Amino acid sequence: MAVLMPKPSAAVLGRRAAIVSALKAIVPGEGVVDAANEMRVFESDGLTAYRQMPLVVVLPETVDQVAAVLRYCHAERIPVVPRGSGTSLSGGALPLEDGVLLVLSRFNRVLDIDFDNRCAVVQPGVTNLGITRAVEHRGFYYAPDPSSQIACSIGGNVAENSGGVHSLKYGLTANNVLGIEFVTIEGEVIRLGGKHLDSEGYDLLGLMTGSEGLLGVVTEVTVRILQAPETARAVLIGFPSSEQAGAAVAAIIAEGIIPGGMEMMDRPAIHAAEDFVHAGYPRDVEALLIVELDGPKAEVDHLLAAVERISHTHGCASAKVSQSDEERAAFWAGRKAAFPAVGRISPDYYCMDGTIPRKELPKVLAGMKDLSVKHGLRVANVFHAGDGNLHPLILYDANKPGELESAEEFGNDILRLCVAVGGVLTGEHGVGVEKRDLMPEMFSDDDLKHQQRVKCAFDSEHLLNPGKVFPLLHRCAELGRMHVHKGQVAFPDLPRF
């Protein structure tokens, strides 16, 4: 494992039998998995390059059980790693050798559907697509749609602030979650938000969304549901180069057009997806845009014409508009299957996640070509072009000595490039362990310390998901210390507690 995790506590490892026994008393029946061969399926998440067996796996079924497990782990100083469906691509659910893996997959019920208030209340183990399936009979759907939506859970979406192909117009998870219930490491159950549009006070809901399991364990989610648009049509636009496609993306947005989705794929990804799904993608282009417009029919027709006009201005080689919902679905099926499709052309691939200003797309795509030569590895690009969220897939063979390390460094260089052009390290996959050691590329030491102070307010012992996000973890006492200069503290007249 190239990424170093916290050194396991010998004291916790030595008490494993007693810990397992105590957890079985809290979650009886088949709720505790402690046999090595049965825990093997939990040793990694979607970032399978990194693997680590947990101390024990716990699958609670009730909020009371979650609270009791967390209270016990807090009292016994045992780390806890929350996990949903395990589809995280940043190592966010990577287990710890001395930690309890708390799996929420049994929290899989839709609790309430409120069409009048256009929201649904679900447990965190409900799949992303499961929400849409629960409300589509009334013409509603849940907008954020990660490519893994058939498997990824809404609790994990909240943890990573997941997006999807339609997030350009309808927002990320943070823009579609109205409320949550979560449990603190001390076992306290807290509710934030609800069915109402906004909450008073600090935006703690926004803080929890994207917190990667470091602040609490989500046990219930209230999401916004939307009515399906009257019309939706997609167009496949082929370009002779990725740079031209990137320039077209920037021009479409600059004209004030906000598509329902705007995705881009380069030649390796196009061919892999077409061979896998047979979606009707052109094979004679270097880059492909999939642009979907939705809304009233007249508006959609007008915007489609505008998108085609802009694309031709930027040298597009072909344009094909969907003529039915079935054809539109086929266009998207190829994009959503791009990751597994690329898996058919390489023994392994490393999926990155960085976000850049749209105008920098041509520069960054050209830079990735240079990096591909530098590191001697191929890269296939599939990404959310409309909001600049890149997902380069670095192709490598883990059986060849040194190739995983080369893939990691290639990925690091891509993320450094994203930050250099004014972007950020992640768009929707989170930091986890994958980008943890790159955080200083984007944040100063003071920035990171202030972020850790927020962590301390929720989890002063650093028991929730330690080893993730922060490259260097400070004790909360260190972060809270006062500066004394020549025997005096600042503002000595203020009371201190």
TrEMBL record:
The entry's keywords: FAD, Flavoprotein, Oxidoreductase
The keyword Zinc-finger appears for this protein: no
Cofactor needs: FAD
Cited SUPFAM superfamilies: FAD-binding/transporter-associated domain-like (SSF56176), FAD-linked oxidases, C-terminal domain (SSF55103)
InterPro entries xref list: FAD-bd_oxidored_4_C, FAD-bd_PCMH, FAD-bd_PCMH-like_sf, FAD-bd_PCMH_sub2, FAD-linked_Oxase-like_C, FAD-linked_OxidoTrans_Type4, Oxid_FAD_bind_N, Vanillyl_alc_oxidase_C-sub2
Residues in FAD-binding PCMH-type domain copies: 50-228
MF-aspect GO terms: FAD binding; oxidoreductase activity
Stored Pfam families: FAD-oxidase_C (PF02913), FAD_binding_4 (PF01565)
Name the UniProt record assigns to this protein: Lactate dehydrogenase
